[in-house]
Amino acid sequence: MAHLRVSILVTCLMASALCPADAATKKVRVPNKYDGSWSIMAMTAQGPCSANTNYQVQIKASNASVPGEDVDIGGGVSAGGAVQVTLIKGPNTVPIMGKLSSDGSGSGTWRTSGGLVDCSGSWNAKRTS
Length: 129
Fold this sequence. Notes:
Number of strands: 9
């Protein structure tokens, strides 16, 4: 079973802000100990994607959602916090990897592939509630 990191998921969404956001919300299962609101900051290190993008992710009852983004999400967060997620929006695929901590922080990397542009960078997450 692939593992999805909520924070990384948000970061990927930030990196792939090539299209306007839609009103849909996608959900992904994650362990309960990561429940809460998370703020994800995605930073672009390489490529023409937005330099820094902030996303809000809500995790409740093991479901993660990113309001306002129409994306397909695969993967998850392991019980130990390892994040392995793939976001797909149109022709863009964004693999996200990293780690969430039960103390309310996280970090990792992301990279776009298969789309119109190639970008890569890192993300940081902080639980806000």
